[in-house]
């Protein structure tokens, strides 16, 4: 796979169109399905860019995202979207667009920024060269996650654990009211 | 360079959805789209022309080792995707509780009903 640009552009345009549909459609269920289609296209794009681990993870996570979002929308009766425009919000987002474009042009226009297809690899060269002898992992990505950058992974696992704990605390049905005795069966 | 620009377009669509839409589920969808854009951008930075996946097997020699794509963004994005799932679960559980309390997804009505 020497030149992946046509496939990548096709996928990206598909993703942009899919996200516009997800943003502008009137039914919440259609919006959820559209954003899920964007996620699956993203998974295929990862596969084209030589990242099979990310592609597999994205696929699994995308299915779960679809399930969670549908649980959030479909069981509730009121899934239509009322339309009313908020001028202030539209103006604010336009200002954000301008700022993002301006700073993006500044960054991408500067000299030190690498072109697409020519990464810096200043740190990663060491990982690629010493990955197999130092960690005995054939997959360099795994050796980076679980060995070279294990502390980062630990921190990220903490974030994941905390968010899941928060979701469980919000969703549980029975709780103790303050000042009330716990019934012991 | 066009790839980076399309990633920025995707990010802006998500940002617009987050800022301008009233529906909370639409806001969550905006956050999810922004997350996709950022993950895609990071992987795109690490792509090397004619690159192969950074997995070593018996046929790998020094010449093939030079063609590996950047493994560092891949490793960090891998955990970022899973964290995105956890945060999404948290947001959706908040939305479910808000809907049970107020009976609507509309942000302006929810903030009106205070007290």
Description:
The complex is a heterodimer of chains A (185) and B (115). Chain A has 185 residues and is an all-alpha fold. Helix content of chain A is 70%, strand content 0%. Chain A is built from seven helices and no strands. In chain A, helix 5 packs across helix 6. The longest helix of chain A is centred in the middle third of the chain and has 23 residues. Chain B is an all-alpha fold and 115 residues long. Chain B contains five helices and no strands. In chain B, helix 1 packs antiparallel against helix 2 and helix 2 runs antiparallel to helix 4. Chain B is elongated and about 65 Å long. The N and C termini of chain B lie far apart (51 Å). The model of chain B has no long low-confidence stretch (mean pLDDT 86).
Summarize this structure briefly:
The complex is a heterodimer of chains A (185) and B (115). Chain A is mainly α.
């Amino acid at each position: 796979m020497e030149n992946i640009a046509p496939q990548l552009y096709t996928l990206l345009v598909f993703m942009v169109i899919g996200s516009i549909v997800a943003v502008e459609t009137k039914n919440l269920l259609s919006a959820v399905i559209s954003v899920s289609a964007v996620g699956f296209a993203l998974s295929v794009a990862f596969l084209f860019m030589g990242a099979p681990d990310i592609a597999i993870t994205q696929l699994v996570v995308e299915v779960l995202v679809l399930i969670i979002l549908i649980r959030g929308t479909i069981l509730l009766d009121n899934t239509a979207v009322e339309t009313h425009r908020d001028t202030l919000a539209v103006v604010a987002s336009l200002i954000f667009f301008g700022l993002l474009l301006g700073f993006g042009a500044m960054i991408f226009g500067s000299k030190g920024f690498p072109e697409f297809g020519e990464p810096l690899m200043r740190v990663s060269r060491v990982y690629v060269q010493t990955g197999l002898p130092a960690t005995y992992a054939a997959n360099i990505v795994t050796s980076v996650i679980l060995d070279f950058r294990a502390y980062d992974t630990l921190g990220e696992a903490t974030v994941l654990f905390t968010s899941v704990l928060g979701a469980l605390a919000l969703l549980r049905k029975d709780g103790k009211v303050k000042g009330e005795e716990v019934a012991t069966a | 360079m066009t790839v980076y620009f399309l990633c920025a377009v995707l990010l802006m669509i998500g940002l617009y959805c987050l800022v301008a839409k009233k529906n909370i589920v639409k806001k969550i969808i905006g956050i999810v789209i922004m997350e996709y854009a950022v993950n895609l951008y990071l992987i795109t930075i690490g792509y090397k022309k004619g690159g192969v996946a950074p997995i070593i097997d018996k046929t790998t020699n020094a010449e093939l080792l030079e063609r590996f794509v950047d493994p560092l963004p891949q490793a960090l994005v891998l955990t970022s995707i899973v964290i995105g799932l956890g945060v999404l679960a948290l947001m959706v559980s908040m939305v479910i509780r808000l809907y049970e309390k107020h009976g609507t997804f509309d942000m302006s009505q929810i903030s009106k009903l205070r007290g």
